[in-house]
Amino acid sequence: MSVSVNTAPSTALVSRILPIIDRLVATPAKRSGPNSFDGSEARLGALFTSGGLKDVETLTETRRLHFASFDAYFGGIEQGAGNVGQEYLALPADIRQAVHADARRLVGDTGGSIEIEVATSFACGPR
Predict the structure, then answer these.
(1) Residues 6+ apart with CB under 8 A from 106
(2) Confidence of residue 51 (pLDDT cuts 50, 70, 90)
(3) DSSP secondary structure string, 42-101?
(4) Positive or negative torsion for Cα 35, 41, 46, 48
(5) Confidence at residue 40, expressed as pLDDT on a 0 to 100 scale
(6) Whose CA is closest to 3, among 85, 58, 54, 40?
(7) CA distance 46 to 40
(8) Which among 56, 66, 77, 90 has most CB atoms closer than 10 A?
(9) What are the residue ranges spanned by the domains of the chain?
(10) 71, pLDDT greater than 90
(11) Can you say how many angstroms the Cα of residue 127 is from the centroid of all Cα atoms in its chain?
């Protein structure tokens, strides 16, 4: 069995937008589950071990992802891709505009290409 998880909203590729949405809406949406793993690599490994998996291995990897522009990054969200995109599209237009502006600032957009640092934890182990 194996799994990969976002380490935190702030280091997730797209879920980093959810705290912006939560800050701007009066009542944040109820989500079906977490968008990141709240814990360390050791905790992830312990969860696998407690589930009966053997020889558990874990790894956390950080990468910088390059986008030609902010629009190349945010375009999928604006088109409703994934759970974040669907939540974004459900917002009133004025809130969408505010999320868009805050997201642009969050990723440091200056009008050119952008790089976004993401961190992902992995765990695997046989039963």
Answers:
(1) 16, 20
(2) very high
(3) HHHHHHHHHTT--S-EEEEEEEEEEESSHHHHHHHHHTT-HHHHHHHHTS-HHHHHHHHH
(4) positive
(5) 83
(6) 58
(7) 10
(8) 77
(9) 2-124
(10) yes
(11) 29
Rounded to whole angstroms, the Cα distance separating 100 from 109 reads: 11
Neighbouring C-alpha atoms within 13 Å toward the C-beta of 71 = 2
**Phi, psi (rounded to 5 degrees) for 53:** -85, 145
Residue holding tokens 């200056």? 110
- Per residue in 54-69, pLDDT (tens digit) is 999 999 999 999 999 9
Strands, sheet with 114-124, edge to edge from the N-terminal-most edge strand:
2-6, 114-124, 57-67
Token pair in block for residue 46: 């312990």
3-state secondary structure of 16: helix
